[in-house]
């Protein structure tokens, strides 16, 4: 099975290979060519594990069976890939979350459990993506157990003064986000945005808005993927009120700002959103339970540049 480059061409057939993480090399009995892949755990707790996956061209890679649902986040095209084994299993995935109109990356998708597979990257550059694995789906149990699952939500946190509705001085960060970096969520609203991992490419942020709390005015300068399993931005509970009163110099050219990736058929969670940079805003949570989710922010979008820059970004070990 060979596929063209580009996420639109490969979404349905190619995503069947992503139900597991390649953790070792294997040799093909016919070719004898070893395959090379790497998983790098960026964050892990009792609830979830976030993994960066790189599969280099050539050879056969053994991909382990995956018993848990997961969300993938992708910000570059994929090379042609050949799969054997697990694609024959009864595996069901959610509908992909495509990025807002006018933006190619990132996109996201919820993947269901699957069996072991063998994968070969046939193109000239690696297959690269991020995977958020859920050891536990919070779902409807979140309301009853959030205090024991997330005791840090109620712990004292660092707070800074709210900048309010008066626009602050400073140079626009980018054409996509024409605001000064003083509004960046992790510094403007640190009581609600916790950086769990960061490198030159991505920033993993765990977000919560406590019962009865109003966030400081803040925004998100980077494109991102939301990962929600029971108390996030696509869940009707808690009810949240968004107050966006800080007007930009100019709005970005796209229309819809978010693209939702559906949960697995017959299930409510997890689901995901592919989002553009978000203008400064603040959220009030009037409910008796917190809002809680992960946000994987792309400080750099690899895009087509992965074809020529991958050896610098993702050198083969």
The tally of structural domains comes to 2
CATH architectural group of the largest domain? Sandwich
- Class from secondary-structure proportions: mainly beta
Q: Distance N terminus to C terminus? A: 27 Å
Q: State the order of secondary-structure elements, H for helix, E for strand.
A: HEEEEEEEEHHEEEEEEEEEH
Low-confidence stretches: 1-32
Largest sheet: 6 strands, antiparallel
**CATH class placement of the largest domain:** Mainly Beta
Helix count equals: 4
Instruction: Report strand order across the widest sheet.
Output: 9-10-17-12-15-14
Looking at CATH, the homologous superfamily of the largest domain is: Jelly Rolls
Structure in words:
By secondary structure, the chain is mostly beta strands. 9% of the residues lie in helices and 31% in strands. It has helices at residues 7-14, 142-149, 185-188, 306-313, and strands at residues 37-44, 48-55, 61-63, 70-74, 81-84, 107-111, 117-121, 127-134, 193-198, 202-209, 218-220, 223-231, 241-243, 258-261, 271-275, 278-284, 291-298. The strands form four sheets. A six-stranded antiparallel sheet has the order 9-10-17-12-15-14. A five-stranded antiparallel sheet has the order 1-2-8-4-6, with no helix packed on it. Strands 3-7-5 form a three-stranded antiparallel sheet, with no helix packed on it.
């Amino acid at each position: 099975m060979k596929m063209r480059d580009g996420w639109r061409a490969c979404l349905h057939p190619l995503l069947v290979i992503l139900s597991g993480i390649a953790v070792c090399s294997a040799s093909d009995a016919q070719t004898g060519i070893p395959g090379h892949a790497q998983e790098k755990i960026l964050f892990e707790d009792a609830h979830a594990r976030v993994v960066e996956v790189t599969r280099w061209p050539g050879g056969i890679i053994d991909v382990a069976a995956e018993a848990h649902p997961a969300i993938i986040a992708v910000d570059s095209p994929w090379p042609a890939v050949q799969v054997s084994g697990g694609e024959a299993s009864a595996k069901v995935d959610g509908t992909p979350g495509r990025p807002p109109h006018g933006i190619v990356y990132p996109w996201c998708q919820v993947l269901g459990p699957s069996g072991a597979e063998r994968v070969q990257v046939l193109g000239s550059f690696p297959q690269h993506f991020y995977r958020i694995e859920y050891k536990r789906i919070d779902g409807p149990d979140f309301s009853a157990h959030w205090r024991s699952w997330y005791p840090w939500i109620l712990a004292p946190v660092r707070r800074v003064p709210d900048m309010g509705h008066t626009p602050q001085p400073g140079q626009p960060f980018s054409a996509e986000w024409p605001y000064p970096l003083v509004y960046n969520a992790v510094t403007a609203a640190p009581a609600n945005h916790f950086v769990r991992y960061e490198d030159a490419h991505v920033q993993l942020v765990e977000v919560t808005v406590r019962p009865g709390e109003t966030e400081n005015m803040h925004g998100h300068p980077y494109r991102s993927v939301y990962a929600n399993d029971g108390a996030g931005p696509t869940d009707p509970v808690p009810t949240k009120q968004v107050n966006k009163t800080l007007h930009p110099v100019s709005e970005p050219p796209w229309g819809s700002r978010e693209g939702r990736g559906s949960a697995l058929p017959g299930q409510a969670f997890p689901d995901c959103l592919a989002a553009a940079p978000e203008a400064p805003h603040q959220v009030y949570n009037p409910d008796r339970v917190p809002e809680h989710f992960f946000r994987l922010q792309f400080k750099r979008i690899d895009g087509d540049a992965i074809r020529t820059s991958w050896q610098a970004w993702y050198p083969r070990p």
